[in-house]
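For the sake of transparency, this paper describes our internal protein records without simplification. Because each token names a local backbone shape, the row as a whole describes the fold. One such record is reproduced below, unchanged from the form in which we store it.
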Amino acid sequence: MSNRESRRIQVFITTVATVYISTLLLWEHLHGGVVSHHILHRSDLPAISNWWGILLLPALTWFLAGRIGRREAGPWSRVVIVRLIGSLLFGVVLSIAFLKGFEIITSLMPPGLLVLAFFIPLFKAEYVLGFVLSMTFTFGAILPTVFAAIVALLAYVIFRFIRPVPVYLVSLFGRKMG
């Protein structure tokens, strides 16, 4: 894929994200006002307005889509698209579970990401982008971005530094058995 094609995809995805957040904010404005979300869903903590999403979501999308497009080994490959769709679906399920009050699901899914981080590089841009885009409808853009950044950092540490230890031990044990 050429740089020009990657840039075109980056512009397209950023345009879609901009239209998405603009439409969401317009709908909220026309239906009772733009929503503010309290940190950790606690009213005693500060609230963050969804208006901030009009700045954050297009900028974040541009940045993450650009990171994907700059990869030498398969930018916007089938694997990247599957990862993006998988993280979109994860975010949709988590959002629906939250809205429907399924507390068991909403309490198990985030820690489940840390378990998945042993096997999947959840810190990659497509995972973060899909998650934030899917969660924006329910939580605005700020809270999912903060959450995704924390998970991506933890996933990076798990995948790059903690995961190699048991992998090495298993391979060492396997060599002694064979």
